[in-house]
């Protein structure tokens, strides 16, 4: 239960860390740390407006999106703290739960009948598809190294304190960070802050949503941000830590995760849309690199 | 260069000696038979093989209805940079004449805006004109069933292509304009731009009042980001009644030059910020935004308005650039240009920024010539075209416009060229402001003329004024009656010519690159729609 609570808690904060980092690097004070929460609070008090071409699908999609993110969060452990739900092959369920939420959102977006939503959906689906191999290569590597089949068992057993596996741990964390950037629509793949419909990816899909629906999607997005962060944190925290030190490690690593995203967003321009495919293949190459490193280490008897 | 007799037929004046303004008595404008006029225009504007001439361009071509006979009288002004001349001629369309004259735009594409406007205002549909698309209204004024909703966008019947429509209401705080993309997946096949949603009737408002103050205020409001540019152009016209070289004209002209360059500097820096924002490069964005604020605040310190409204007035001004104010501007700009240089170096050495700009949304020099591009949009494509060069009196004697050379820079009019021209022009503008301040410091003892709103314009004349605003060549033309009042007023904002550049730049480009290209031209909607 502890990892789930931690994910929920960090979901409320990561956005704030990113905003503060960006603001500080821009020489500004920035908005309040919990401003995203206040914004969602306002949205929750508002009613929705639906396109004339939308059906029940549009109405349930945001809830499905949020629910799938919550369900996926249940599957994640933190080091030796086990996940709420855990079984062999749960990481496959994890990946497709998130994909299911995305599918619901894509279908809802297509229903609105606007060309922006269509464009955004096509891009979002393409990018998700291209980043999927990376996720499975990374998790597969972990499964191979530890010989286990569920997230809880993998991360409980993953011993990154030996010199060889420390290197692997860094590669994995970097890989998960990149997957996180893609899945959460951050720079360099997407720009969450843009107002230009034609350049949007994720934001274009939710252009038509309003009120509680939009609030649900935003909450789902925070959850996803900390879910993917959780994976990177898991790869990074020293093995065999437990109790309060583990929670401290988690807090530090999660803050670093937010700060790194903020740094990337401040110091880098986003990719050209066509370059994204190349970029995503590179991200998958990181997964392959992790896999190769692990494979070599294992076959050489370590 | 051109046949001798062509030059002889057209009335020639040299506005270079008079700060870009010229006045021609209406009786002196030669009225040619249309075939002669058309042939002369072809000779003036294009080479023998049909390519447009770099140095010559039509700056105004419009028609007015003769109150007495109902005939349409057409006037055309052609600027020849090489000789520093502006040639004027016209032709008359008889009220009872059947059929329309032959279109010039089909051979000289740059003429399309003028012919479309004439068709829109007077119903003269030139024979063979490519497309009498509405220009300053978002619908066909001559068709009572036409409205904004039934606008006939260009379309292609195809199962592979899809249409994306943006506007006229946009997400950001920008003006209204409709963009219709024909897309093949993510690739733009064709972009059609429909403007006119901002039409306010500026030209008739100016002609409809005798109040000079109101006229210059209207001039300041033609395009909010070019307040000084348009006001300077209009002031040139309002001052046409006095003999050239009236008391204090040098002083006022020098101040206007400084103001124009400050406007250019501020907008170029702001545009750099906007470009960075659109490619999500936060560091460049915030750095440039801060610098722009410094420049426009310096402007506020001078005249009380950050955009220079209230500064330019006919025959004088209310805000003298005193030694103290000049000193403040010099200090500010020295700091600004130093920091802007650093930003420029940073932009040109950041790989992710370069990857976003290099080779993207290019416009070739040939395309720019054909559509009649002006200002930085023309210069970034390698055309040496700058009104300051031939027609304006400026404090910097050895002024040379910045031209991004396609061969030397390797940028074929792409986004990077559009960034580079801003970085370089800012340097030149800064140097010119400094030179202007120095020049003014040497004239502190001269009496400062107060604005005069009472003087009539030159009587029964065609008065024109050419000014290089930050966006390019601004041309104002007025026809005056026997009392020296404006009977017809025409305004040509550089955006009028450059919107086609935007449409061409995104042909074959990615649709996600359109907003960046749009920002890189930063064209005016209201300046176009008037």
Automatic annotation (TrEMBL), chain A:
Which EC number applies? Answer: 1.-.-.-
Q: Name one GO molecular function term.
A: oxidoreductase activity
- Write out the annotated subcellular location: Membrane
What keyword terms does UniProt attach to this protein?
Membrane, Oxidoreductase, Transmembrane, Transmembrane helix
Q: State the annotated membrane topology for this chain.
A: Multi-pass membrane protein
InterPro entries in the record: ComplexI_Subunit1, NADH_UbQ_OxRdtase_su1/FPO
A matching Pfam family = NADHdh
Chief location bin: membrane
Q: Where are the transmembrane segments?
A: 63-85, 91-110, 130-155, 161-183, 243-264, 276-298
A Gene Ontology term for the protein's cellular component? plasma membrane
What is this protein identified as?
Answer: Hydrogenase-4 component C
* Annotated source species: Rikenella microfusus
Taxonomy, top ranks, is: Bacteria, Pseudomonadati, Bacteroidota, Bacteroidia, Bacteroidales
- What is this protein's gene name? hyfC
From TrEMBL, chain B:
Q: Where is the NADH-quinone oxidoreductase subunit D domain?
A: 278-441
Instruction: Enumerate the InterPro entries for this protein.
Output: ComplexI_49kDa-like (IPR052197), NADH_Q_OxRdtase_suD (IPR001135), NADH_quin_OxRdtase_su_C/D-like (IPR037232), NiFe-Hase_large (IPR029014)
Mind listing the GO molecular function terms for this protein?
NAD binding; oxidoreductase activity, acting on NAD(P)H; quinone binding
Keyword set, alphabetical order:
Oxidoreductase
| Protein name (Swiss-Prot/TrEMBL) | Hydrogenase-3 component E
Protein's organism: Rikenella microfusus
Protein's gene: hycE
